[in-house]
Predict the 3D structure of the following.
Amino acid sequence: MISQNQQNTKKQKEYSRFFKYMVGGGIYFWLGYAIFALGYSVFHWNWFPAKILADGIGWTSNYIIQRHWAFSDRIHLSELQHRGRYIFIEGIGFIIDYLIIGGLKSVGITPYIGFFISSAFFTVWSYLWYKYWVFPEKKK
């Protein structure tokens, strides 16, 4: 049976993890948004290659933050396993993200707004995948 103190500690740890996750996600979002704006609006690239560059840099920074800060207490798989899971789930997210932003652009909504709409979905999506599969709690 878990004591009240243990439950409170567990909740505090989860709140801390979620805060760190949001910091990492915020860095990913704003760094990617800035790089996208540079490619799309300054260099006048098509939205797709501008977003690919933004995501490549964002994914890398996000992985480092999530792996070494937000979920650092859950590291028990090999680095290759964590990276493989991260790349796999982000690959699926890549398709969904581009469908959201591309679909919105096709009906006249700027990719800049699409970034925000997509990020709302991925805030929940990614946290759940990271917590339960990419950086799972070690089984006792």
